Amino acid sequence: MSAQELIQVPATEGRAVTLSAGQAFRVVDVEGKQVADLFAFNATDVGEYHSAMHTRAAVSHLFPKVGEAFVTNRRRPILTLVADDTPAVHDMLIAPCDPERYQGLGVQEWHASCRENLEIAMRELGHDRIAHPASINLFMNIPVATDGSLGWDPAVTAAGDSITLRAEMDTIVVVSACPQDIVPINDRNPTPIAIELLDSD
Ligand SMILES: [Zn+2]
Q1: pTM
Q2: Of 36, 42, 93, 177, which has fewest CB within 10 angstroms of its CB?
């Protein structure tokens, strides 16, 4: 599959892209060690969206394997994981960062967040009122210990690592280059993400 169009997601920002059913795309960690929070909505009814808890039930893993699908709150496939050219360390347990998260971490002033990036990107498409689903946290390294405790480790991705997904319905995908710089998930250095739309052949 060759790249058809490239969408740059600047560090700490978000971008939306509308995909037709069957369209594949790649999410690229441009410089490495950068988390991409991904959200997916049914383009014809944004009341249907990717749901992490429904996906975990569908695949019986914490995160889908290659060939498995992410499903919606109506238990329908919305994205399929086509290829994973990373160390395959991703997270689907942790909520996207939001203003309250940064307040809780002691940040006094405004701080960019994945929730605001989601809201801005959807508003630009005319969707003012949306649900706030759990994110698909690509490249995010949250090790789960045998006692159930969670770690907040830097992403292990290298520059150029990517994951390839395919839309299973007409889908709005929002990708946020996570602005988190207080805990070390982005190695305390937020960097850009790229979205490559792929030819379907
Ligand atoms: Zn974030």
Answers
A1: 0.96
A2: 93
CA of 192 to the centre of ligand 1 (A): 13
**CA end-to-end span of the chain:** 6
Nearest CA to 51 among 70, 67, 79? 70
**3-class DSSP state for residue 103?**
helix
Sorted by sequence, the CB contacts under 8 Å of residue 146 that are 6+ apart come out as none
* Distance (Å) from CA 78 to ligand 1 centroid: 22
Q: How far is the CA of 59 from the centre of ligand 1 (A)?
A: 25
- Residue 25, Cβ density class (10 Å: 0-12 exposed, 13-18 middle, ≥19 buried): buried
The helix (H) or strand (E) run that includes residue 120 is: helix 114-124
- Ligand 1 center to 100 CA (angstroms): 12
**Locate tokens 């959807």: which residue?**
122
Compute the distance from residue 200 Cα to the ligand 1 centre, in Å.
Answer: 30
Q: Residue 42's closest CA among 67, 14, 73, 69?
A: 73
pLDDT tens sequence across 38-89: 999 999 999 999 999 999 999 999 999 999 999 999 999 999 999 999 999 9
Take residue 118 and report the two structure tokens written for it: 């989601």
Q: What is the C-alpha to C-alpha distance for residues 180 and 189, in angstroms, rounded to an integer?
A: 8
